[in-house]
Amino acid sequence: MCGIVGYVGRRQAESVLLEGLRRLEYRGYDSAGIALPENGGLRVIKTQGRVQDLRDKVEPVTIVGTTGIAHTRWATHGEPSDRNAHPHTDSSGRIAIVHNGIIENADQLRAELIGQGVAFASDTDSEAIAHLIAAALPHTTSLEAAVRSALAQVRGTYGLLVLDADRPDELVVARNGSPIVLGIGDGEMFIASDVAALVHHTQRVVFLDDGEIATVRADEFRTSTVGFDAEHTTKVPTTIDVTAAEYALAGHPDYLRKEIADQAEAVRRALRGRLDHRFATAHLGGLAMDPRELRGVSKVVFLGCGSAYYAGQLGAALVEELARIPATAEPASEFRYRNPVVDPDALYVAISQSGETMDTLAAVQELQRKGGRVIGAVNVVGSAIARQCGAGMFLHAGPEVSVASTKAVTNMAVSFAMLALLLGRVRDLSAADGKRIVDGLHSLPDAIDAVIADEPAIAQIAARFAKAQNMFFVGRVRMWPTAREGAQKLKEISYIHAEAYQGSELKHGPLALIDAEMPSVVLLPDDELLAKNLTTIEQIKARGGAVLAVTNADVPDDCADAVIRVPKTTPELDPIIFTIPLQLLAYHTALTLGRDVDKPRNLAKSVTVE
Ligand code: F6R
């Protein structure tokens, strides 16, 4: 949420920063800005709109300089506008800052600073930080000390990057609750809120921890704790295995299409080395739990937000079905606020693609504080949630750039199927059933590719349904999380209102909304509820509603107004396969309506604010 880029080195900073912003734009895209030292002062250029709008403003000017900071914003305090875009400066124009996060005592700080005669130039919570740093500068010997002093007055979260016109060879950066990573080059340093902005320059990175501050120069960086005691911290650079090539569109028109198409390969990566054919189980070494500990798990609780939460619901269903252990899922954003009873024998699973979602991270911290055992199911290696959990399953989906999550969600479900298999096989799941699941997981990539091969037909169906204002997604039992995920995908990228219901619940109220204007997508797996789901379709049709059935059952084409057929795998894994056509349906509906599929309005990837 919001993207930060900084550079100090030997190249012209302007182009490094603009390119970095372009790669981070998925983190926020309502405004953008850049600041570089120029003639003893600062040159700040910012604009409402996309990074391209900023580029159009910056390129004709050409700011010469080898240090600079930049930002792409997702508004929290203050509407998207030129004046609210970052960087923000102090009144003298000497200090510029870019900030991710939320300053909770911003109103109080603003009132105090205004009382001291400071004039504010924006409505943001962030601007106060620039004024506080400027106020501290005369009383301190370094920029870092001034930033430290300012942060001592601030309550809230930040990923913060500071530029001082009087010290054009250094940048100061600090982290509390919002990610910051340093990229170490040869005589140059890169700073970003996300490795996406760094990987085309360097693979050597240092992740700042919460409560750390760093002074960064072209050939060195020094880290310490933010508090006044300023204890030096030792950071060993790590080499990340993500490459720039993984961020390339590779011939796809947009990242969403690429990431949907990538899924078979992503699933293969998630399965690699983890399926044990001999004992019909899974190897998940990252859990760091021996069979006795696995047997001792009394309950499994999945925690995540948005689509990660729906994947957790699917995980809970799989664990109950395969391992016969009570399992539930809950939005991490709610869990952390309801003073949960933490069961020391339960296994808590924190689910996150980005590994930075603030609510999920806070739930992990709350669990650990109460002695709960929590593992991560995280995609981004080195992310805050992965590091906080210390154990878990990496999703291996590869970088996900499009705001709507697709391949990470699929790999969450695949990982939970393996977790359920492992938990089941240390209990009473038979070897024969274990083998069925192992074989089913093995066949998933080909089944996914078979669905994707059907894309032209799904695109035609999407075009037929795209004029709807509202849609129902109907799925029962196993398919309920899939229905919710289908509705989520459609609403977030096409802006069509969509709700998920269990077929069994329709007649208890929602059926009143069915008419010729309200189509329903009904998930129709070939399972013990097939006849009941067919009855649901009849009930919808009898009220004039159009039905799109997604099915792997041997049902006639005229059972619904349109039918998408998907391959059979293993019934327990059907929800994973059924998710793929729903992604394609949402994608092509959004394209039909002319939406920006990678950057849906009002949203941003990686929600690092509350
Ligand atoms: C939906 C979507 C969001 C995320 C949610 C959690 O397509 O992308 O609902 O799933 O914000 O994000 P992570 O997984 O990064 O914690």
Automatic annotation (TrEMBL):
Limits of the SIS domain: 289-429, 461-600
Top EC category: transferase
Residues in coiled coil: none
Any one GO MF annotation of this record: glutamine-fructose-6-phosphate transaminase (isomerizing) activity
GO BP terms: amino sugar biosynthetic process; carbohydrate metabolic process; fructose 6-phosphate metabolic process; protein N-linked glycosylation; UDP-N-acetylglucosamine metabolic process
Enzyme Commission number: 2.6.1.16
Entry's localization field: Cytoplasm
Record keywords, A-Z: Aminotransferase, Cytoplasm, Glutamine amidotransferase, Repeat, Transferase
Catalysed reaction, written as an equation: D-fructose 6-phosphate + L-glutamine = D-glucosamine 6-phosphate + L-glutamate
This protein's GO CC annotations: cytosol
Keyword Repeat: yes
Sequence ranges assigned to domain Glutamine amidotransferase type-2 in this UniProt record: 2-219
InterPro entries the UniProt entry points to: GATase_2_dom (IPR017932), GFAT (IPR005855), GFAT_N (IPR047084), GlmS/AgaS_SIS (IPR035466), GlmS/FrlB_SIS (IPR035490), Ntn_hydrolases_N (IPR029055), SIS_dom (IPR001347), SIS_dom_sf (IPR046348)
UniProt main location, coarse: cytoplasm
Residues the record marks as active site: C2 (nucleophile), K605 (for fru-6p isomerization activity)
Keyword Transferase listed: yes
Functional summary from the UniProt entry: Catalyzes the first step in hexosamine metabolism, converting fructose-6P into glucosamine-6P using glutamine as a nitrogen source.
Subunit record text: Homodimer.
Name of protein: Glutamine--fructose-6-phosphate aminotransferase [isomerizing]
Organism per entry: Nocardia camponoti
Gene: glmS
